[in-house]
Structures are given as C-alpha cells and as structure tokens.
C-alpha cells in the first residue's frame, strides 16, 4: 500500500504505531431495575451531523455558527483536527460554536499526527478531505479504531491519486499524502457505507471535474443535504434503482449557520428503555427523524411499541419530532435486512428489546456490525447471554428468544459485561440492566463520552 509517501513522513509512522493508547480511565458501573421512566428529556446533537457541520464550516470561507453541536469526544476529535488543518473553531459561553473556515484547496499541513480517538467518522471523512489537498497527514486512533478497516476508503482515494501507507491489514495508523490535482472518479460503493460515500464526495470538493458515487443501497444522506446548504454543486439522481451522487469540483463553500437536531441513535436507548420498563411514559424532545436514520422507530412499532411523534417540524433541513414513548409488551419479528442501513447503529439496543419480547427475533445481513467500534454481533451475544438472555450468534446476525417481558435472570452476582471500547455496547447493556433481576455491571462506561456525555445524567433524571 506504499505509494511515494515522503521519507520524512514515513519515518514517523512506526512512532505513531507505538503511540496507540487509551487515555481514558476505566470506570465500571452497575445498572439495575429502577422505577418507570417519566417526564421529558432532550438528547444531545446528532453525531453524524455535528462532524459534518465542523468539517464543512471549516472549509467555507467566512464565519459559520453551529447551534446544538454534540460535545462528545468523537466530535471534539474532528474539531481538533480541523484546527490543525487551518480552521479557527471557538466555543462561545452560550454553547454555540463559531467557525472561520480555511477554504477548499487551502488546508494547511498538520504539524503533528491527527488523533482520531475512537471515531471512524472523523478518520474516514477527513481522509477524504485531505486526499485532494497537497498536504501529508498521519492518522492515529485508539485500540478500537486501529483495528477497523480503512481499505474501503483507501481504495477509492488512491484511485483519485492520493498516496497512502497504512498499517498491516489496511488499518490505522496510516499516512496519507493528498494529490494535487486529484482525478475525478465514478465509484460504486462495494459496502453500504455513508462514511465511504462521504470520503469520496469530500475528496471531490477539491478535484477538478465531476466526482460520482453510485450507491446501490441508500445510506444516511447528511453529507448531501448539508453540502448543498454550504453552496456545493451536488446532484442526486437515480438509475436502475441505484442512487447516483455527483459533486462538482473545485467548489467554493459559503459559510452558513447550522442547527443540529437531536441524535436518533442516542434517543434509541431511551426509546427502548421506556418501552421495556413497566409504567414508563417518557417524552424525548427534538429527535432527528431523517428517513435514512429512522429504521429503529419502524421496527419497534412493528414489534408493538407505543411511540407517537409530536410536533413534527424541520430543523436545519432535517425532519425532527418529539417522541412520546409508553411502556408496551413487544413481540419478536424477523427483521428485513433491507432496513439495516437506516438503523445500523441501533442494533445493539434492538437486541436488548428483542431479549425482553415475547417470541423470537431474527436478524440477518448484518456483517457490517462486526467492523464497528467492536464486533457488535459477538460482543452483544456474549453480553446478553451473561445477563441471562437466550441468544444464538450467526455469521450475519443474531437470533434472540425473548423472555416475554420477564426480567432477564443471569448470575445472582450480576453479569460483568466487557464493552470493548464501544459506547453503544455500554449504553445498550445499561438498558438491559434496567430490565434485569440481578443488575448488569459494565466494566467500563467511559466510552459513552464519545457520543452521549449526558447519558448517565438523563437516565437518572428520567428514572426519578
Ligand atoms: C456514520 C455512518 C455509519 C455509522 C457511523 C456514523 C456517518 O457508518 O455506523 O456511526 O456519520 O457517516 P458506515 O457508513 O461505515 O456504515
């Protein structure tokens, strides 16, 4: 995978490899049955939209303001990287963020490695951004991110002319030297991945001509929506049932003010918690319901959940509503794999819902879950079994036989769950704890800060 990365930069790579470490202190915590979830909560800003708002504002010439930005570790890694690339990014005392962009084509070469922490979105999208700039950057990440596949972005970016030297297996740490000028390509996505789609489109921003991505299966479309708002010329068409997205380079982005809606992937934990715990009646305000993200809502309703949308509205070009969730007994179903991309991050908590449903829930077509922050099929199967659920693991999904609403009954001392640096495993198993006889102990809750720093506080608030 070596392609003329400069010798100076290449010498730094072994050093970066040795530097893979985790800075967080591990914090274990027990979650046990508590009273119904009631009242009104507000989940923080959408992670995908927050990353993109910082990146695109960081490329626009002039001042953008961002309201409702998610201040989780993943998004802060993107903010730090964009500063290293030349954008000025400030948080005001009112919680609003102000960004002065560096300009497409004018990114600066970072003086030190870009530390992506746990964040696959930061790593893959920023690789795309840098791939068409005449700069070299080293990307590092934590132990989880350093095991995740990057070949899926390396391949198209090398076709566009970037030089990339990755660690064995196509992983981080890696070094990327952008191409100037880069070559526009037409790229058909081999995996349903919004991150790969976005990496190619972002590389296309500073590439002369038209860069196209063909998407056989639609994935979240925040990049397309927001880039249009920032003034990029982007066309979305359809041919033979496939989506085709074309971006015109070399683009000039104009600044804009972004309001980030609440994250449906964070709301998911409370949707399931309030559904499972008897007596619950919880309103979750400001939940983003972009159709490419709303799969869990449909699936839970199919299983019998009682969730109503209140005050449907538009926030920053994205559909949003408040969700009123009341306790309901769920019934197991076979989940259509076609819905997977629109709820790809919600499967861990759906598995928890299935473990308490009556009857059997079967999922298939979920190979992608094996390359998320952890192998979410293996880790959730092990965690749920420890907590007392009946689970069978297959190559591409889980089959779960629910308790019919009885609390999960694991070991009397309570299960100790390994979360493997995966925020969504930690939060999903915390919710399983609420529906268990003996409680669930999580070995490390610190990864929750990557996407949902207020999770523990909101859980306590809703349970009071
Ligand atoms: C994301 C896309 C998804 C998702 C991730 C965020 C994004 O990954 O799992 O949490 O912001 O584009 P893939 O695109 O790799 O499926």
From TrEMBL:
<dbReference type="InterPro" id="IPR001986">
    <property type="entry name" value="Enolpyruvate_Tfrase_dom"/>
</dbReference>
<feature type="binding site">
    <location>
        <position position="52"/>
    </location>
    <ligand>
        <name>3-phosphoshikimate</name>
    </ligand>
</feature>
<comment type="pathway">
    <text>Metabolic intermediate biosynthesis; chorismate biosynthesis; chorismate from D-erythrose 4-phosphate and phosphoenolpyruvate: step 6/7.</text>
</comment>
<feature type="binding site">
    <location>
        <position position="195"/>
    </location>
    <ligand>
        <name>3-phosphoshikimate</name>
    </ligand>
</feature>
<feature type="binding site">
    <location>
        <position position="372"/>
    </location>
    <ligand>
        <name>3-phosphoshikimate</name>
    </ligand>
</feature>
<feature type="active site" description="Proton acceptor">
    <location>
        <position position="345"/>
    </location>
</feature>
<dbReference type="Pfam" id="PF00275">
    <property type="entry name" value="EPSP_synthase"/>
</dbReference>
<dbReference type="GO" id="GO:0009423">
    <property type="term" value="P:chorismate biosynthetic process"/>
</dbReference>
<feature type="binding site">
    <location>
        <position position="195"/>
    </location>
    <ligand>
        <name>phosphoenolpyruvate</name>
    </ligand>
</feature>
<feature type="domain" description="Enolpyruvate transferase">
    <location>
        <begin position="34"/>
        <end position="457"/>
    </location>
</feature>
<feature type="binding site">
    <location>
        <position position="376"/>
    </location>
    <ligand>
        <name>phosphoenolpyruvate</name>
    </ligand>
</feature>
<feature type="binding site">
    <location>
        <position position="193"/>
    </location>
    <ligand>
        <name>3-phosphoshikimate</name>
    </ligand>
</feature>
<feature type="binding site">
    <location>
        <position position="424"/>
    </location>
    <ligand>
        <name>phosphoenolpyruvate</name>
    </ligand>
</feature>
<comment type="similarity">
    <text>Belongs to the EPSP synthase family.</text>
</comment>
<dbReference type="GO" id="GO:0005737">
    <property type="term" value="C:cytoplasm"/>
</dbReference>
<keyword id="KW-0808">Transferase</keyword>
<feature type="binding site">
    <location>
        <position position="120"/>
    </location>
    <ligand>
        <name>phosphoenolpyruvate</name>
    </ligand>
</feature>
<dbReference type="InterPro" id="IPR006264">
    <property type="entry name" value="EPSP_synthase"/>
</dbReference>
<dbReference type="GO" id="GO:0008652">
    <property type="term" value="P:amino acid biosynthetic process"/>
</dbReference>
<comment type="subunit">
    <text>Monomer.</text>
</comment>
<dbReference type="GO" id="GO:0009073">
    <property type="term" value="P:aromatic amino acid family biosynthetic process"/>
</dbReference>
<dbReference type="InterPro" id="IPR023193">
    <property type="entry name" value="EPSP_synthase_CS"/>
</dbReference>
<feature type="binding site">
    <location>
        <position position="47"/>
    </location>
    <ligand>
        <name>3-phosphoshikimate</name>
    </ligand>
</feature>
<dbReference type="InterPro" id="IPR036968">
    <property type="entry name" value="Enolpyruvate_Tfrase_sf"/>
</dbReference>
<feature type="binding site">
    <location>
        <position position="148"/>
    </location>
    <ligand>
        <name>phosphoenolpyruvate</name>
    </ligand>
</feature>
<feature type="binding site">
    <location>
        <position position="345"/>
    </location>
    <ligand>
        <name>3-phosphoshikimate</name>
    </ligand>
</feature>
<dbReference type="InterPro" id="IPR013792">
    <property type="entry name" value="RNA3'P_cycl/enolpyr_Trfase_a/b"/>
</dbReference>
<protein>
    <recommendedName>
        <fullName>3-phosphoshikimate 1-carboxyvinyltransferase</fullName>
        <ecNumber>2.5.1.19</ecNumber>
    </recommendedName>
</protein>
<feature type="binding site">
    <location>
        <position position="48"/>
    </location>
    <ligand>
        <name>3-phosphoshikimate</name>
    </ligand>
</feature>
<keyword id="KW-0963">Cytoplasm</keyword>
<comment type="function">
    <text>Catalyzes the transfer of the enolpyruvyl moiety of phosphoenolpyruvate (PEP) to the 5-hydroxyl of shikimate-3-phosphate (S3P) to produce enolpyruvyl shikimate-3-phosphate and inorganic phosphate.</text>
</comment>
<keyword id="KW-0028">Amino-acid biosynthesis</keyword>
<dbReference type="GO" id="GO:0003866">
    <property type="term" value="F:3-phosphoshikimate 1-carboxyvinyltransferase activity"/>
</dbReference>
<keyword id="KW-0057">Aromatic amino acid biosynthesis</keyword>
<feature type="binding site">
    <location>
        <position position="47"/>
    </location>
    <ligand>
        <name>phosphoenolpyruvate</name>
    </ligand>
</feature>
């Amino acid at each position: 995978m070596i392609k003329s990365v400069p010798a100076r930069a290449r010498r730094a790579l072994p050093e970066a490899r040795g530097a893979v470490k985790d800075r967080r202190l591990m914090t274990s915590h027990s979650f046990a049955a508590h009273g119904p979830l009631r009242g009104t909560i507000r989940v923080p800003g959408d992670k995908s939209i927050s990353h993109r708002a910082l990146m695109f504002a960081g490329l626009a010439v002039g001042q953008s303001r961002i309201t409702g930005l998610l201040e989780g570790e993943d998004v802060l890694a993107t903010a730090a990287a964009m500063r290293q690339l030349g954008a000025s990014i400030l948080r005001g005392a009112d919680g609003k963020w102000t960004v002065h962009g560096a300009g497409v084509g004018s990114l600066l070469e970072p003086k030190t490695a870009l530390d992506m922490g746990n964040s696959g979105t930061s790593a893959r999208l920023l690789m795309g951004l840098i791939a068409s700039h005449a700069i070299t950057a080293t990307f590092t990440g934590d132990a989880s991110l350093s095991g995740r596949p990057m070949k899926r972005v390396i391949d198209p970016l090398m076709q566009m002319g970037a030089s990339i030297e990755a660690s064995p297996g196509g992983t981080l740490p890696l070094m990327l030297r952008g191409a100037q000028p880069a070559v526009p390509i037409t790229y058909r996505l081999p995996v349903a991945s919004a991150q790969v789609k976005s990496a190619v489109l972002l590389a296309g921003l500073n590439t002369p001509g038209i860069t196209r991505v063909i998407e056989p299966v639609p994935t979240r479309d925040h990049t397309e929506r927001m880039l249009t708002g920032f003034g990029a010329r982007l066309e979305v068409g359809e041919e033979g049932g496939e989506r085709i997205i074309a971006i015109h380079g070399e683009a000039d982005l104009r600044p804009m003010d972004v309001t980030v809606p609440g994250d449906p992937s964070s709301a998911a934990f409370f949707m399931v918690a309030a559904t499972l715990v008897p007596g619950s009646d919880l309103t979750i305000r400001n939940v983003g319901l972009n159709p490419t993200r709303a799969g869990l809502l449909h699936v839970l309703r199919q299983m019998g959940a009682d969730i109503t949308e209140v005050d449907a509205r538009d926030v920053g070009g994205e559909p949003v509503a408040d969700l009123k969730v009341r306790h309901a007994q769920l019934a197991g179903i076979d989940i259509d794999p076609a819905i997977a991309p629109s709820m790809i991050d919600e499967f861990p908590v759906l598995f928890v819902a299935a473990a308490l449903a009556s009857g059997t829930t079967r999922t298939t077509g979920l190979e992608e879950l094996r390359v998320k922050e952890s192998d979410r099929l293996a880790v959730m199967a092990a965690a749920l079994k420890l907590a007392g659920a009946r689970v069978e693991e297959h190559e591409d999904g889980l089959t779960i036989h629910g308790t019919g609403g009885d609390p999960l009954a694991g070991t009397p001392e309570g299960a100790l769950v390994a979360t493997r640096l995966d925020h969504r495993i930690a939060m999903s198993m915390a919710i399983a704890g609420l529906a268990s006889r003996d409680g669930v102990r999580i070995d490390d809750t610190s990864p929750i800060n990557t996407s949902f720093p207020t999770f523990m506080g909101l859980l306590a608030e809703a349970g009071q």
